[in-house]
Write a structure and sequence with these properties.
Chain A has a domain of 72 residues. Helix content of chain A is 31%, strand content 22%. Chain A has twelve helices and 14 strands. In chain A, α3 packs across α4, α4 packs across α6 and α6 runs parallel beside α7. Chain B has one domain: MetI-like fold (Orthogonal Bundle), CATH 1.10.3720.10. Chain B is elongated. By secondary structure, chain C is an all-alpha fold. Chain C folds into two domains: 71 residues, no CATH class; 225 residues, MetI-like fold (Orthogonal Bundle). Helix content of chain C is 75%, strand content 0%. In chain C, α1 runs antiparallel to α12, α5 packs across α8 and α6 packs across α8. Classes of the chains: A alpha/beta, B mainly alpha, C mainly alpha. Chains B and C meet through α3, α4, α7, α8 and α9 of B and α1, α6, α7, α9 and α10 of C.
């Protein structure tokens, strides 16, 4: 299993930065009874080999559709997806289903949200792992079985030989997610999509699975896109973070920069909605008031404006472009950014006028 | 290939479409079916006052003659008017179909309501009794009962009524169980209303729509079953016409005059199809489960 | 194993109830049972003989047990008309009916499974529309109508197949199959329509499952996803429906035998009803009802094979 470079040590990869994935102006729409729904609206980003990008947003922000669009794993009917997706030398947009099958599983793989539903209940775990080994890598049955045992033990499943003969319902949720990870890793992909991989799991298991993903990624020098609604999940585990809102990237930065110098009020609001260990217990968590925008007829101007404590009249009719911040690799879309004089002034004005949606409206945990 | 293979299951992808309800409407096919059923029922009801020859009068016209102005559907091998025989045959089919299902509704419906509402031992006893009824293949049980009880219209109706009790009871029981746990029933219980009142005033009206649409399809099933018994010569005795015995008689003249078998067969199938369409249409119209509450 | 034992106990219970009700049929006869069984030419001596043989002067439970004991030994009594043992007639006729049932079900599944899969692959596509409409139409075609139409087309007009008649398989296998084609198709069409609709609906639902998207993301080819991933979970409902369909199928087989003059159990039943040969009718009811219960029992067991979740969580740990 040595596709690409396997770094033995746990030093940070010394591979020359090679761009693995380039997404340009990706736009995905769905036909709905009410009209065209734009779930991903002109998204661009790059990802280097072996690095991790966290994609964060509320449900309905388009983050799941974004990962499906990059993989080209969209329904053929009712969905349109345009733009450029360059992955590992392939121009993905416009590939036929047959060509995509040569990439899916072998170079690109995905771990799904709910391990209760993403494993086939009527197939033994062994077969679910070995079938891609046999189909893609042409292994014999015994080779594939041997390899499946290695995979299962590498994702931390005890007594893997016995587990091969089990059905999914015989395993706990955490073990099942380990199995789906083993399946995704089977053919040594260069890029792994993990779509909310821990949302359906017990809190105690969540960290283990995230650590496992990180470890596997380092070992295989595989790139990963970690999709989540929880900034806490990505905090220590990604190189970069992209925050999505209403189908667009509204802020993107290296992880440390994002937490230190966030510019977008939405990012701030997301951060305010997660519990933190450094705060005294019973500190109120701040909920984001309002609902995500309607993607069939999005509001004019900035899409977050209706819920934004900083919003000014300009925000409601003029859409802010995604612009570069002084720090390298930091982009954001906001007219009155957090932590700038303009932002402070906007917040103050709203407070004086008393019209702002009260960001302190909160729920106590 | 395979557009159905890849689904977007994130419900958030389509945020506001779930709440939009499609307007309830009947299809064109539903109305065609209703028109056909009204026609057949009207013909059957008014058969004796319509200007028709007697269905049993032989040599009313030339045997095996083709349709003509006086005999719109032609005449059979004994010179009996086909239209008249089909109309009088409709009487038997409809009488058997509707009466049998009515019996099924009264007994099966009550049993299902009681079993579903009270649950526990009552449910166990009623459900076991229904399972015994379902443990026999329907037509075989019908044949056996006709064999031992004797051949008559009354017995055909009784046995088909008996056979429709269990399926209707099961259906009513299933939807009663759902409604018996709803808030408005609990509320009625809290207010101290008697069970009988709750059953008839609160549960029954809600169970009714799905039951009626199923009952219409059950009528089609009973008509097909009566046709089978007549076809085997075990329903109403000839020369009284039924669609089933007309098909059976006609099938012996297939090489001479296929019309004799095909004509009643077509009327039977169209009626069954119309009942199926009507039942399906009502079911989607009344789909109480998903739309309300 | 405990599960299997519990199911077996249930099976015995149901069989007792079913045989009891089959036995009770004789009591539906109007008037004196012995007189009815013997017919209008009954003599006093004959009546006394039948009364003794059928234990008619004993209380019902005792009679039932005596009768059941005989049935368990394969003795269903003998016809008072032909003086042939009921079990002998049944043994002659059963293979014909079973052959008809088996061939028709093979045909029904052989067409329903590929059609259901293909229809579900593109819901609303031309294949789906044509097969759905045809299936809905076939559901309104009872065997006695379809049989007549098929005879008219393929026997009377085209002379491809005989309209009636039967050649035993051991006499001439080719002729036997040739004779069975039209009857089997007649019987298969109704089942085909039911199976097709169920499998299509189940496949469409299954193809929405996460594990199918997962298989797609693994780069598995479409045919493999359909046959290895989607078919088995979808057949669970199909098996249920096939089990429920057996009752209708047996009734259909009786009609088909009558139409095509096949010497099966159905024709024997109808002949016996007309000749008031009550013991034969009773024997047939018992055998058919028991077979029906046993088949449904086997269908229940088939679940355990198809759905690993139904086997219970024994290997956990």
């Amino acid at each position: 299993m040595s596709r690409g470079h396997t770094t033995a040590g746990h030093e940070y990869p010394e591979i020359p930065a090679e761009t693995l994935l380039t997404v340009e102006d990706l736009r995905t729409t769905f036909d709905t009874p009410r009209g065209k729904l734009t779930a991903v609206d002109g998204v661009s980003f790059e990802l280097e080999a072996g690095r991790t990008l966290g994609v964060v947003g509320e449900s309905g922000s388009g983050k799941t559709v974004l990962s499906r669009s990059v993989m080209r794993l969209l329904p053929k009917r009712g969905a349109t997806s345009t733009g450029r997706v360059r992955f590992n030398g392939h121009e993905m947009v416009g590939l036929t289903q047959k060509q995509l099958r040569g990439i899916w599983g072998t170079e690109l793989a995905m771990v799904f949200q709910d391990p209760m539903t993403s494993l086939n209940p009527t197939m033994r775990i062994g077969n679910q792992i070995t079938e891609s080994l046999r189909y893609h890598l042409g292994m014999s049955s015994s080779e594939a079985t041997e390899h499946a045992v290695v995979l299962l033990s590498s994702v931390g499943i005890p007594t893997p030989e016995r587990r091969l003969h089990d059905y999914p319902h015989q395993l706990s949720g955490g073990l099942r997610q380990r199995v789906t990870i083993a399946i995704a890793l089977a053919c040594g992909p260069r890029l792994l999509f993990a779509d909310e991989p821990t949302t359906a799991l017990d809190v105690t298991v969540q960290a283990q699975i995230l650590d496992l993903l990180a470890a596997q990624q380092r070992e295989r020098s595989m790139a990963m896109i970690l999709v989540t609604h929880d900034l806490g999940v990505v905090a220590g585990r990604t190189d970069d973070i992209a925050v999505m809102y209403g189908g667009k990237i509204v802020e993107q930065a290296p992880t440390k920069t994002l937490f230190a110098e966030m510019r977008m009020p939405y990012t701030e609001a997301l951060l305010g909605s997660i519990p933190r260990a450094d705060q005294p217990s019973h500190t109120p968590l701040q909920a984001i008031p309002g609902r995500p925008p309607d993607l069939v007829s999005p509001p004019p101007g900035c899409r977050f404006a209706p819920r934004c404590p900083y919003a000014q009249p300009r925000c409601r009719h003029e859409e802010p472009p995604l612009r570069e911040a002084p720090t390298k690799g930091h982009r954001f879309a906001c007219w009155f950014p957090v932590g700038t004089p303009e932002g402070r002034q906007a917040l103050e004005e709203n407070r004086v006028r008393g019209v702002a949606l009260d960001p302190a409206r909160s729920v106590t945990t | 290939m395979a557009e159905a293979l890849v689904a977007i299951e994130d419900p958030a992808v389509l945020p506001d479409t779930v709440g939009v309800r499609q307007p309830r409407r009947f299809t064109v096919l539903f109305w065609i079916a209703v028109v056909w059923l009204v026609l057949i029922i009207a013909l059957a009801v008014f058969a004796s006052v319509l200007p028709l020859d007697s269905p049993t009068q032989v040599f009313a016209c030339i045997p095996n003659s083709a349709p003509s102005w006086h005999h719109l559907l032609g005449c059979d091998e004994l010179g009996r008017d086909m239209l008249s025989r089909i109309v009088f045959g409709a009487r038997v089919s409809l009488e058997v179909g509707f009466t049998a299902v009515f019996i099924g509704l009264v007994f099966g419906g009550t049993a299902g309501l009681v079993a579903g509402y009270f649950g526990g031992k009552t449910d166990l006893i009623i459900s076991s009794a229904m399972n015994v009824l379902l443990a026999f293949p329907a037509l075989v049980l019908a044949l056996a009962v006709i064999a031992f009880l004797g051949q008559s219209l009354r017995n055909v109706i009784l046995i088909l009524g008996l056979l429709s009790i269990a399926p209707l009871a099961r259906l009513v029981r299933a939807s009663t169980v759902v409604y018996a746990q709803r808030e408005f029933v609990t509320a009625a219980r809290m207010m101290g209303f008697r069970s009988r009142r709750i059953l008839f005033r609160e549960v029954l009206p809600n169970v009714m729509p799905s039951t009626l649409s199923f009952a219409i399809v059950a009528v089609a099933v009973a008509i097909v079953a009566e046709g089978a018994l007549s076809f085997l010569g075990l329903s109403v005795r000839p020369p009284a016409p039924t669609w089933g015995n007309m098909i059976a008689e006609g099938s012996t003249y297939l090489s001479e005059n296929a019309w004799l078998a095909l004509c009643p067969a077509a009327v039977l199938c169209l009626t069954v199809l119309a009942l199926n369409f009507a039942g399906d249409g009502l079911r989607s119209f009344f789909d109480v489960k998903d739309s309300a509450l | 194993m405990a599960l299997l034992a519990r199911r077996l106990v249930q099976l015995v219970g149901v069989l007792l109830v079913v045989t009891f009700f089959s036995y009770l049929l004789l009591n539906l006869l109007p008037g004196n049972v012995a007189v009815a069984v013997l017919g209008p030419n009954a003599t006093a001596a004959g009546i006394a003989h039948v009364t003794a043989e059928l234990h008619l002067n004993q209380p019902l439970p005792q009679r039932y047990i005596e009768w059941l004991w005989q049935v368990l030994q394969g003795n269903f009594g003998e016809s008072y008309h032909t003086h042939e043992a009921v079990s002998t007639s049944l043994a002659q006729r059963l293979p014909v009916t079973i052959e008809l049932l088996v061939i028709s079900q093979i045909l029904a599944f052989a067409f329903a499974i590929p059609l259901g899969i293909l229809a579900a692959l593109r819901p609303g596509g031309w294949l789906d529309n044509i097969s759905s409409i045809t299936a809905f139409g076939f559901l309104a075609l009872p065997p006695y109508v379809l049989g007549v139409i098929l005879v008219l087309i393929f026997a009377v007009s085209l002379h491809w197949f005989p309209a009636t008649g039967y050649t035993p398989f051991l006499t001439d296998p080719g002729a036997n199959i040739h004779d069975m084609i039209l009857p089997s198709i007649t019987l298969a069409v109704g089942s085909l329509a039911v199976y097709l609709r169920v499998l299509r609906a189940e496949m469409i639902a299954t193809l929405q499952e996460d594990y199918i998207t997962m298989a797609v993301a693994k780069g598995m080819p479409t045919w493999r996803i359909l046959t290895r991933h989607a078919l088995r979970p979808s057949t669970i409902a199909l098996v249920t429906v096939a089990g429920l369909n057996v009752g209708a199928l047996i009734g259909g087989a009786f009609l088909v035998e009558y139409i095509f003059a096949l010497p099966g159990v159905g024709v024997l039943a109808i002949e016996s009803i007309f000749s008031k040969d009550y013991l034969v009718v009773q024997g047939i009811v018992v055998v058919v009802a028991v077979a029906y219960v046993v088949v449904n029992f086997c269908v229940d067991l088939l679940y355990l094979f198809l759905d690993p979740r139904a086997r219970g969580v024994q290997t956990l740990g």
